[in-house]
């Protein structure tokens, strides 16, 4: 039976790492290893995880406040080195593909708004066989990084969807602040990088604790 319920949102934009892709722990470890490689103090798990979602340069600078600026390029190279050793080990969270297929079947436009680089996102999309499932995407190195609203504003302009009909989904406060700054609604997920207690002040419509829960909420409310 066809779902005749009117859509609330025409565009649903997803963060990538920690929201669709099970990569939070690996990114945290790679940040820590890179900082140590260039002589910095190893950031805690919480400090390394907090910067996930920001553009790489900003994330590494915040995670390594004791590393001098002249070492930032080396810091970035070391992060990429560690990440590339294990990127093929990463997988989508269970239930992501059926969720995306169900949203597409209802006529939602789907997008990715991520702090990854364009190269990094394209490699991940190819690996996960997801490239054709999204109508558009933006990365931190081709526009402003989160939580600046430009990333979402560009996606809305490209797909001709107003803010009132756009929903942002992510696992960090950076994602939810991005939505707020762009005038969009948001949904948080608690299984990624940030503790969900920090989400409340940013006004998400819902906080999902698993992909199946997220998929059900979207089916009922989006």
Model description:
By secondary structure, the chain is of the alpha/beta class. The protein has 2 domains: 11-23 and 92-221, 3-Layer(aba) Sandwich (Rossmann fold), CATH 3.40.50.1000; 24-89, DNA polymerase, domain 1. Helices cover 42% and strands 12% of the residues. It contains 9 helices and 6 strands. It has helices at 24-37, 45-50, 56-63, 72-86, 96-105, 118-127, 150-159, 173-182, 211-221, and strands at 11-14, 109-114, 136-139, 166-170, 185-189, 207-208. Helix 1 crosses helix 4 (72-86) and helix 5 runs parallel beside helix 9 (211-221). The model has no long low-confidence stretch (mean pLDDT 88).
Write the layout of secondary structure elements.
Elements: E1 11-14, H1 24-37, H2 45-50, H3 56-63, H4 72-86, H5 96-105, E2 109-114, H6 118-127, E3 136-139, H7 150-159, E4 166-170, H8 173-182, E5 185-189, E6 207-208, H9 211-221
Parallel strand pairs: 1-2, 1-4, 2-3, 4-5, 5-6
Helix pairs in contact: 1-4, 3-4, 5-9
């Amino acid at each position: 039976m066809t779902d005749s319920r009117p859509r609330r949102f025409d565009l649903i934009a997803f963060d990538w790492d920690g929201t669709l892709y099970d990569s939070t722990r690996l990114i945290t470890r790679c940040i820590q290893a890179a900082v140590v490689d260039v002589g910095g103090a190893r950031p805690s798990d919480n400090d390394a995880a907090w910067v996930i979602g920001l553009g790489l340069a900003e994330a590494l600078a915040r995670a390594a406040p004791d590393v001098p600026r002249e070492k930032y390029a080396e810091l970035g190279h070391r992060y990429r080195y560690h990440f590339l050793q294990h990127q093929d080990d990463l997988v989508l969270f269970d239930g992501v593909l059926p969720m995306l297929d169900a949203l597409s079947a209802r006529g939602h436009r789907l997008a990715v708004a991520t702090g990854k680089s364009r190269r990094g996102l394209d490699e991940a999309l190819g690996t996960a066989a997801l490239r054709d499932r999204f109508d558009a995407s933006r990365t931190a190195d081709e526009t402003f990084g989160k939580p600046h609203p430009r990333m979402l504003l560009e996606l809305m302009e490209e797909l001709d969807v107003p803010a009132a009909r756009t929903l942002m989904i992510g696992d960090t406060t950076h994602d939810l602040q991005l939505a707020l700054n762009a005038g969009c609604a948001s949904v948080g997920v608690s299984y990624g990088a940030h503790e969900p207690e920090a989400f409340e002040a940013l006004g998400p419509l819902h906080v999902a604790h698993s992909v199946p829960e997220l998929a059900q909420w979207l089916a009922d409310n989006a």
